[in-house]
Amino acid sequence: MPAYSPLSVRAIYMHLAAVVQLRNFRDSPQPQLNSHSATRMREFKSKDFWRAVLAEFVGMTFFIFLSIAAAIGNTNNTAPDQEVKVSLAFGLAIATLAQSLGHISGAHLNPAVTIGMLVSCQISIFKAVMYIIAQMLGSALASGIMYGARPSQSSALGLNTLNGVTPAQGVGIELLATFQLVLCVIAVTDKRRRDVTGSAPLAIGLSVCLGHLAAISYTGCGINPARSFGPALILNNFDNHWVSPTSALRMLRILLYANSIKSCLNNSITDL
């Protein structure tokens, strides 16, 4: 049996101890970044993410410009034919922009839609916040452009006004009109569906048009909080602006409640 010097024995012992420590370190759970923080960092460093945010900004700018231009081009904006014209302009603008920008950002072009996508777990919180900021900025920019380009005899800029209805009635009308739009967007973009063979942008545009046909006579139709925000900011008139955000918040509560029920049902089924 070969003889080992004390130094050799000590070296072997230290080597074995290092191997054991390395194995224990490898087998021990390693600290990881919070999943939400990691997601935010990945998105923040992604060029595709910022392209999507820019697409929301550009899309909202064009949408507000086209829709407000249609709304204030005729001073007789309470006539039924004018309401149809404005409703078609809003719907066609959304359909066109959704088809053009949908592959980049999903073409939300509406904070209510973004919130709906967030609640349905289709986007992250960070992306939702950045989308809404981009939408608000785009709305303000387009409203400022239209403020400078509007006809001299016109003082309108597409502000939301209550026509013959109480604030509570206005909130109810806006809530239902907004909810049908968000429901349409979530339904036609659901990747689990196999029966949707038509054009999703066209369906969304028709939903926007339908919402305006139903609500424009009563509230001016603020189913898009960003659209309501831009003109109110430029004219510094927020008298009835709260109706649209309140409706969006109520819709958010409904979606959160529905999502919590869905989670409870899924957990119950899993536990069976």
UniProtKB/TrEMBL annotation:
InterPro entries: Aquaporin_transptr, MIP, MIP_CS. GO terms for biological process: hyperosmotic response; renal water transport. The keyword DNA-binding does not apply. GO terms for molecular function: ammonium channel activity; carbon dioxide transmembrane transporter activity; glycerol transmembrane transporter activity; water channel activity. One of its GO terms (cellular component) is membrane. The chain crosses the membrane at residues 49-72, 84-107, 128-149, 169-188. Keywords: Membrane, Transmembrane, Transmembrane helix. The keyword Transmembrane applies. Belongs to the MIP/aquaporin (TC 1.A.8) family. This is Aquaporin 1. It comes from Solea senegalensis. The lineage of its organism: Eukaryota, Metazoa, Chordata, Craniata, Vertebrata.
